[in-house]
Amino acid sequence: MPEVQGGSSYWVVTTDGVLRKEEVLRVPAKIRMLMDPPTTPRGIASKHELEAAARELETLVASWDGEGDPPAAMVAWASRFLDGWLVDADPGAPS
């Protein structure tokens, strides 16, 4: 279950170091369930951006056979997404 603080939620996760296709495919669905209906233009735009990113991730994961390392394209996409997401999350934060 997610922990909730001040309208935000987060998970504490442990892993055995193995990326599993079925688990990765569950993440976008969980994200969509947690998203509150946006009320501001920026919130609406952010929701659309996150939904588009979830579809891109689902497409990349669906093309992976689930064996061995994930494809380089999937890793590169995740790196770009996280780099952009962290910058957008707090524009004044040091990188």
Fold and architecture overview:
With 95 residues, the protein is mainly alpha-helical. The protein is built from 3 helices and 2 strands, in the order E-E-H-H-H. Strands 1-2 form a two-stranded antiparallel ribbon. Strand 1 (3-5) and strand 2 form a beta hairpin. Helix 1 runs antiparallel to helix 2 (41-62) and helix 2 (41-62) packs antiparallel against helix 3 (72-89). The longest helix is centred in the middle third of the chain and has 22 residues, at 41-62. The termini are far apart.
Question: Could you give a quick summary of the protein structure above?
Answer:
The protein has helices at 21-34, 41-62, 72-89, and strands spanning 3-5, 8-10. The protein is mainly α and 95 residues long. Helix 1 (21-34) packs antiparallel against helix 2 (41-62).
Core attributes:
mainly alpha; globular; 95 residues; single chain
N- to C-terminal separation? Answer: 30 Å
Q: Supply the helix-strand structural class.
A: mainly alpha
Helix content: 55-70%
Question: How many helix segments?
Answer: 3
Total count of strands: 2
- The helix/strand order is EEHHH
Mean pLDDT: 77
Low-confidence residue ranges: none
List the helices and strands and how they pair.
Layout: E1 3-5, E2 8-10, H1 21-34, H2 41-62, H3 72-89
Antiparallel strand pairs: 1-2
Helix pairs in contact: 1-2, 2-3
